[in-house]
């Protein structure tokens, strides 16, 4: 039995001392958590190799299948990549933002998420992320924002261009969030923007043949760029708050139109009684 900083029951702690793991957890899950702590404790960067399978078996006093299941769990989480063949093994992987958002979206898949839910957060977070981005955005960043506005500063020629314009409107805010020095705040703002792109009711809204309050939104965004360039944090916060409030009102109004349309369609086709009536 090994002693020292490799506890056969639990593996090493972040400080190199034995550490108890949660009771009732499956052994592969315990090992996966211990490996994650090891990655952090040893400062293993993406691309770094983990100990070979046999080393891990010895370190955790576990069988081959248990260690492989633990590594597979980490691979599914996007934290490691497993290479096969000679010289293979587990390598620390950098999880992409897209994958992280996909995992979070999967968690929310069975939840009821509304436009109002999203904007309740956006009204609070978007002004904060814009102020934090103001300290880092440069001339290239301002040019990116201006180029995005140019995508939707005119009436669309067709439905396809209209869709691209609505997506670009959200991309404007994604770029602002990119320049935030608060990684957590930036991630959640971009996640909320992605939800608006993916939410079924938003897809219906973006397809509506309705005039978009384009000029008001563009005015807010240009004022925002000017305030950010001037380093005026109170003004940045005020403009973005007003922009989010107006955007929420517009989205909720369009949502109500869709719901009314669906109700009217249902009224036009009343349910038929079983065994009678006419078919349609």
What is the strand and helix layout of this fold?
Elements: H1 27-41, H2 53-60, H3 64-76, E1 80-83, E2 89-92, H4 97-107, H5 115-134, H6 139-149, H7 159-178, H8 183-198, H9 200-207, H10 214-230, H11 233-268
Antiparallel strand pairs: 1-2
In short:
With 280 residues, this protein is mainly α.
The helix/strand class is mainly alpha
- Reading off the top of the CATH hierarchy, the class of the largest domain is best stated as Mainly Alpha
How many distinct domains? 2
Shape: elongated
What is the total tally of β strands? 2
Distance between the first and last residues' Cα: 76 Å
CATH topology of the largest domain: Four Helix Bundle (Hemerythrin (Met), subunit A)
- Kindly estimate the percentage of residues that lie in beta strands according to DSSP: under 5%
Instruction: Assign the CATH superfamily of the largest domain.
Output: GntR ligand-binding domain-like
In terms of per-residue confidence, which ranges show pLDDT below 50 for 5 or more consecutive residues? 1-21, 265-270, 272-280
User: What is the succession of H and E elements?
Assistant: HHHEEHHHHHHHH
With helices defined by DSSP (H or I, 4 residues minimum), what is the helix count?
A: 11
Question: What would you note in describing this structure?
Answer:
The protein is mainly alpha-helical. It has 2 domains: 27-92, Winged helix-like DNA-binding domain superfamily/Winged helix DNA-binding domain (Arc Repressor Mutant, subunit A), CATH 1.10.10.10; 99-268, Four Helix Bundle (Hemerythrin (Met), subunit A), CATH 1.20.120.530. The chain is 62% helix and 3% strand. The chain has helices at 27-41, 53-60, 64-76, 97-107, 115-134, 139-149, 159-178, 183-198, 200-207, 214-230, 233-268, and strands spanning 80-83, 89-92. β1 and β2 (89-92) form a beta hairpin. α1 (27-41) packs across α3 (64-76), α5 packs antiparallel against α11 and α7 packs antiparallel against α8. It is elongated. The model is unreliable at 1-21, 265-270 and 272-280 (pLDDT under 50).
